[in-house]
UniProtKB/TrEMBL annotation:
The gene coding this protein: sucA
Alphabetical keyword list: Oxidoreductase, Thiamine pyrophosphate
Protein name (Swiss-Prot/TrEMBL): oxoglutarate dehydrogenase (succinyl-transferring)
Enzyme Commission number, as recorded: 1.2.4.2
Limits of the Transketolase-like pyrimidine-binding domain: 593-786
Biological function: E1 component of the 2-oxoglutarate dehydrogenase (OGDH) complex which catalyzes the decarboxylation of 2-oxoglutarate, the first step in the conversion of 2-oxoglutarate to succinyl-CoA and CO(2).
Domain of life the protein comes from: Bacteria
Cofactor: thiamine diphosphate
EC top class, as a word: oxidoreductase
Protein family per UniProt: Belongs to the alpha-ketoglutarate dehydrogenase family.
Length: 939
C-alpha cells in the first residue's frame, strides 16, 4: 500500500484526490475501494493527535477547516428553545445506544438469551416520539456521513450499529481518542461492512474446514473425547483473520494459549498439523521415546504460515487441564520473544488468548493476567482475547450460576479493554469485529476482547449427554442448522456460489482428510528457522557433568568495584549508603563477604559473560529483607539507578522489576519466559517462601512436570525465603516437602545453600551450564546477616557449588562416632550447641542439594569416619514436613553402602509432626528450637 501511496497517480499533484478519498472514507468506509479502506483502517495516528487528526498534513489541515466551519455554523444557528431541547435529547439518545445498545443486540444464535428491555433506548425516555422521526437534527459526533439527518435516519443508524448481531462495549474506556476511533469504525459502516466476493468465499471455506474436521472425527471416532468446536465454528475464521491481518502489520510471531475446546481444530486448520498424525493419536499409534506424554487436547504445536506481510511463526502453548492458567504463561513467552527482538512496543510478537466463558469469569488468574497487561515488567503490547462462549459452564451450570456480572467478559473492563460481543452465526459480523480488534491492538497496544456467543452442539466432551441437565437448550440445538449451513445458504441465495459449489467445498475437504493432506491455509512447508527459538545448545546434557564456575580474582574485584559505582551527586539513603560502603570493603578484602554482596556479584559476572538476566518478585529491587539493593533511589529527587545495568557498553539486558501482588500469574509468566529464552537466567523471588502456595498449580502442572509431559525444558529459578525465625506459621516454611515430593526423573533441583559462596556458585552454575532444569532455592532470612554465614573473595574466585559440605571443625576423623546431617540455617545452631557442649566426637554435615540427591558425595564424606556408630537427620521443620520423609531413603542408601547396620541407628531430630508449619508464639518457637538442637546431640 505504501507503493500505491507513492505511485504516480497519487503522488504530488494528485494529493487532493487522496484528501477527497479519505474524506469519503470517513463518511462511509464502504464507499471507497476495499484496498484503500484496508489502508485507511490501519493508518497510525500521530502521537498526541486528536481523533479527527489525519496522518498527512494537507489532509489534517483540510479537516481542521471543516471542523471549524461546523463549530461556527453550530454556534451561529438559531432555533427555538423546544428544538434546542430536542436536539440535546437526540444527542443523548445517540449516547445511550453507544453505552447500552449491546444489551439489546441479537447475540444468541439459539435465541434463548433473555434480554431485559432497556428504557434508555426508547424514544420516549428522551422525550422524543414518532412525530419527531422526520424532523432533522444535528448528528453531532455520530459517524454517518452527514452533519444533519432526520431522527428516523439517526435512529436506524444507531440501532443497526449497536443492536444488530454485534454488541460493542467500549464506552467504559477512559481514553477519548480510543472511544472516538471505535465509534468511527462501527458507526461508519453501521457494524456491517461490505465484503468482497473473494472474502465471503474465503469465510465459507474456513467454516467448511471447521465443521468438516469435527464431522470427520465424529464419524470416525464416535464417543471419543476431543472437546469439539461444533456450535462455535466461527472461531476458525477469527483465528485465520487475526494471523493474516497481524502479518500484514509486520508481526513475525504469534503465540496462542487456549484450553481444550476447539484445540484440535486449531491445530489442524490453523497451525497445519498433519491430519494423519492426529488420526494416529486417536488410534493410539503414537509411541513416545521418553517421559509420560500427555493427552492430545493438551499438546502444543508450532509452524510457519505465509501472510501478505511475510512469513509468520505460530506457536501454541502446551496446556494442562487447569483452565485459564496458560493465559499468563503465553504472556511470558511473548515477552521473551519481544525481548529477543528488541520489540519494546509489541509490534513484532502478538499474543492470542482463547478462553471458555465460565472460566473467563470464574478463574482469578484471568484478572491477574489483565492486571499485568500494562505494567513495566509484564506488558506485551496488548493481547487479543477470544471467548468461545458456549452459554453453559462445564456440563450443567447456567450463566446465572457461573457469574454475578451481566457478561462473562466484564472482568476485562478493569483495564478499559473494549469488548466485542458477536453472534457466532453471523460470520461477516465475526470477521468485522476481528478486523477491528486487530487494528485496535496494533494501534493502541492494549488488550481487546472478542466474545463469540455461540453454543456447544455436544456435551462438555463427546462422552457425556448434555440434554439431561439442559433439555430446552439441546432441543433447540437439535433443530438448529450449523453456522456453515446458514452462511452457505446465504451465499447461494445471493448468487455468489451455486448449491453444487457449496457441496463441493465439503467434499473436497473430506477428501483432503482422507488423504492425510495438510488443510491449513498458507502453511509454509520449509519454514524460516530464524523465526524459531534455538534450543539445540541445551539438549542432551547429563546431570553429572561438572561446570567451572570460578572467576579470575582480578576480574572478580574489577566487577565488584564496578557494581558499587553510582553517578556523581547521586544521594543514597543512609542505610543503603552503608551497605555500599561495606561492599567496597568486601571488594578490597577488608571485610568478610555477606549474602547480598555475593549474590549481586554473581549477576555481575554473568553480565560480563554476556548472559541476560531477568529477576521479578514483590520486592526484588531491594530484597524483602533489604539484602540486595540492586535498584537504587536518589534520596533527594527519587531518580533510579541500577548499577548492574551499567556494567559495560552494549551489555546484555539486566531486567529487574518489583512485581504486583500476584504469585500465580507472575510465576506462570516467568515460566513462559524461561521456556522461551533459554540463554537467560530467569528468577522469581517470593516475598516469603510460603507465598508460592498461591502459585501451586504452576509448580505442579508446569515447572515440575512440563518436561516429562511435553518435553519442555525450563531453567527457571525460584528463590523462596525459608527458615524458622519465630515469625509464625505463615512466614517460616517455604514448604520444602512439597517440592521434594514432586521430584523424580531428575526433573528439577532443590537446594538449601548456607553460605554466600554457595549462592554465588549456584547461580552461576544455573546460568552457565547448558543443562536447563528448574532450580528451587530455599533461600535464607537471618543468614543474610549472620556473623558466621560469610565467605571470602577466594571462595568466590576459586570454589564451586558444593552439594555436600563436610564438617568445618577441627575434628579428628577417627574420634567421630556420630554424624548429624542437616540442611539450611539449623546448621549454625548445631555448631553453636556443639561448641557449648565441647563435643569432639560429633561431625556436622550439610546437604546443600537435596535433589538430585548427591549420594556418591555423601558416601565419600561419611566413609572417612571409620568408627561411625550413629547418624541423625536434624531439621527445623515438623517431622511430617521438611526433607525427612522425602529424602531419608537416599540417606539410607548411602548408609547401606558404608555400613548397613547404621540404618538401625539412623534417627530424626526436629519438631514433632504438626498440622501447621510453625508455632505462632516466639517463646514456644525458641523452646522448640532449643529442644530439637539438643535432641540432635542426645539421640
Amino acid at each position: 500500500m505504501e507503493l500505491m501511496w507513492n505511485s504516480s497517480h497519487t503522488y504530488g499533484g494528485n494529493i487532493h484526490y487522496i484528501e477527497e478519498l479519505y474524506e469519503e472514507y470517513l463518511n462511509d468506509p464502504n464507499a471507497v475501494p476495499e484496498q484503500w479502506r484496508e489502508y485507511f483502517n490501519k493508518l497510525p495516528r500521530p502521537e498526541g493527535a486528536s481523533a479527527q487528526d489525519l496522518p498527512l498534513a494537507p489532509v489534517r489541515d483540510h479537516f481542521s477547516r471543516l471542523a471549524r466551519q461546523r463549530i461556527s455554523r453550530t454556534a451561529s444557528s438559531g432555533g427555538d428553545s423546544l428544538s434546542d431541547k430536542k436536539q440535546v435529547k437526540v444527542l443523548q439518545l445517540i449516547n445511550a445506544y453507544r453505552f447500552r445498545g449491546h444489551q439489546q443486540a441479537n447475540l444468541d444464535p439459539l435465541g434463548l438469551m433473555q434480554r431485559k428491555a432497556i428504557a434508555d433506548l426508547e424514544l420516549s425516555y428522551h422525550q422524543l416520539s414518532n412525530d419527531d422521526l422526520d424532523q432533522e437534527f444535528q448528528t453531532g459526533s455520530l459517524f454517518i456521513g452527514k452533519e444533519k439527518a432526520t431522527l428516523r435516519e439517526i435512529h436506524e443508524a444507531i440501532s443497526q450499529t449497536y443492536c444488530g448481531t454485534i454488541g460493542a462495549e467500549f464506552m467504559h474506556i477512559v481514553d477519548t481518542e480510543e472511544k472516538r476511533w471505535l465509534q468511527q469504525r462501527f458507526e461508519s459502516v453501521r457494524s456491517k461492512p461490505d465484503f468482497s466476493p473473494e472474502v465471503r468465499k474465503h469465510l465459507l471455506e474456513r467454516l467448511v474446514a471447521a465443521e468438516g474436521l469435527e464431522n470427520y472425527l465424529a464419524s470416525k471416532y464416535p464417543g471419543t473425547k476431543r472437546f469439539g468446536l461444533e456450535g462455535g465454528e466461527s472461531y476458525i475464521p477469527i483465528m485465520d483473520e487475526i494471523i493474516q491481518r497481524s502479518g500484514s502489520y509486520g508481526v513475525k510471531e504469534v503465540v496462542i494459549g487456549m484450553a481444550h475446546r476447539g484445540r484440535l481444530n486449531t491445530l489442524v486448520n490453523i497451525l497445519g498439523k498433519s491430519p494423519a498424525e492426529l488420526f494416529e493419536e486417536f488410534d493410539g499409534k503414537i509411541v513416545i521415546e521418553s517421559g509420560s506424554g500427555d493427552v492430545k487436547y493438551h499438546q502444543g504445536f508450532s509452524s510457519n504460515v505465509m501472510t501478505k506481510g511475510g512469513e509468520v511463526h505460530l506457536a501454541m502453548a502446551f496446556n494442562p487441564s487447569h483452565l485459564e492458567i496458560v493465559s499468563p504463561v503465553i504472556e511470558g513467552s511473548v515477552r521473551a520473544r519481544q525481548d529477543r527482538r528488541d520489540d519494546t512496543e509489541g509490534e513484532l510478537v502478538l499474543p492470542i488468548s482463547i478462553h471458555g466463558d465460565s472460566a473467563f469469569s470464574g478463574q482469578g488468574v484471568v484478572m491477574e493476567t489483565f492486571q499485568m497487561s500494562q505494567t513495566r515488567a509484564y506488558k506485551t503490547g496488548g493481547t487479543i482475547h477470544i471467548v468461545i462462549n458456549n452459554q453453559v459452564g462445564f456440563t450443567t451450570a447456567k450463566p446465572e450460576d457461573t457469574r454475578s456480572s451481566e457478561y462473562c467478559t466484564d472482568v476485562a473492563k478493569m483495564v478499559s479493554a473494549p469488548i466485542f460481543h458477536v453472534n457466532g452465526d453471523d460470520p461477516e459480523a465475526v470477521l468485522h469485529v476481528t478486523q477491528v480488534a486487530v487494528d485496535y491492538r496494533m494501534q493502541f497496544k492494549r488488550d481487546v476482547v472478542i466474545n463469540l456467543v455461540c453454543y456447544r452442539r455436544r456435551g462438555h466432551n463427546e462422552a457425556d449427554e448434555p440434554s439431561g441437565t439442559q433439555p430446552l437448550m439441546y432441543q433447540k440445538i437439535a433443530k438448529h442448522p450449523t453456522t456453515r449451513k446458514i452462511y452457505g445458504s446465504q451465499l447461494v441465495e445471493t448468487g455468489l456460489i451455486t448449491a453444487e459449489e457449496d457441496k463441493q467445498l465439503s467434499d473436497d475437504y473430506r477428501d483432503a482428510l482422507d488423504n492425510g493432506q495438510h488443510v491449513a491455509n498458507s502453511l509454509v512447508k520449509e519454514p524460516n528457522k530464524a523465526l524459531f527459538v534455538d534450543w539445540t545448545p541445551y539438549l542432551g546434557h547429563e546431570w553429572t557433568a561438572e561446570y567451572d564456575t570460578s572467576v579470575e580474582m582480578k576480574k572478580l574485584q574489577e566487577l565488584a568495584g564496578k557494581m558499587c559505582e553510582v553517578p556523581e551527586g547521586f544521594q543514597m539513603q543512609r542505610q543503603v549508603s552503608k551497605i555500599y560502603e561495606d561492599r567496597r570493603k568486601m571488594q578490597a578484602g577488608a571485610m568478610a563477604i555477606n549474602w547480598g554482596f555475593a549474590e549481586v556479584l554473581a549477576y555481575a559476572t554473568l553480565i560480563d559473560a554476556d548472559l541476560p538476566i531477568r529477576i521479578t518478585g514483590q520486592d526484588v529491587g531491594r530484597g524483602t529483607f533489604s539484602h540486595r539493593h540492586a535498584v537504587l533511589h536518589d534520596f533527594n529527587d527519587g531518580r533510579v539507578f541500577v548499577p548492574l545495568q551499567n556494567m559495560k557498553p552494549n551489555q546484555r539486558k539486566f531486567i529487574i522489576h518489583d512485581s504486583f501482588l500476584s504469585e500465580e500469574a507472575v510465576l506462570a509468566f516467568e515460566y513462559g519466559y524461561a521456556t522461551t529464552k533459554p540463554d537467560a537466567l530467569v528468577i522469581w523471588e517470593a516475598q516469603f517462601g510460603d507465598f508460592a502456595n498461591g502459585a501451586q498449580v504452576v509448580i505442579d502442572q508446569f515447572i515440575s512436570s512440563g518436561e516429562t509431559k511435553w518435553g519442555r525444558l525450563c531453567g527457571l529459578t525460584m528463590l523462596l525465603p525459608h527458615g524458622y525465625e519465630g515469625q509464625g506459621p505463615e512466614h517460616s516454611s517455604a514448604r520444602l516437602e512439597r517440592y521434594l515430593q514432586l521430584c523424580a526423573e531428575h526433573n528439577m533441583q532443590i537446594c538449601t545453600p548456607t553460605t554466600p559462596a554457595q549462592i554465588f556458585h549456584l547461580l552461576r552454575r544455573q546460568a552457565l551450564r547448558p543443562l536447563r532444569k528448574p532450580l528451587v532455592v530455599m533461600s535464607p532470612k537471618s543468614l543474610l546477616r549472620h556473623k558466621d554465614a560469610t565467605s571470602t573473595l577466594e571462595d568466590l574466585a576459586n570454589g564451586r557449588f558444593e552439594c555436600i559440605i563436610g564438617d568445618k571443625g577441627n575434628l579428628e576423623a577417627k574420634k567421630v562416632k556420630k554424624v548429624i546431617l542437616c540442611g539450611g540455617k539449623v546448621y549454625y545452631d548445631l555448631v553453636t550447641k556443639r561448641e557449648e557442649l565441647g563435643c569432639d566426637d560429633t561431625a556436622i554435615v550439610r546437604i546443600e542439594q537435596l535433589y538430585p540427591f548427591p549420594e556418591k558425595d555423601l558416601e565419600v564424606e561419611l566413609a572417612q569416619y571409620a568408627h561411625l556408630e550413629k547418624v541423625v537427620w536434624c531439621q527445623e521443620e515438623p517431622q511430617n514436613q521438611g526433607a525427612w520423609y522425602s529424602s531419608q531413603h537416599h540417606m539410607r542408601n548411602v548408609l547401606n553402602q558404608i555400613k548397613p547396620e547404621l540404618n538401625q541407628q539412623f534417627s530424626f531430630a526436629g519438631r514433632t509432626a504438626s498440622a501447621a508449619p510453625a508455632s505462632g508464639y516466639v517463646s514456644v518457637h525458641v523452646e522448640q528450637q532449643n529442644r530439637l538442637v539438643a535432641d540432635a546431640f542426645e539421640a
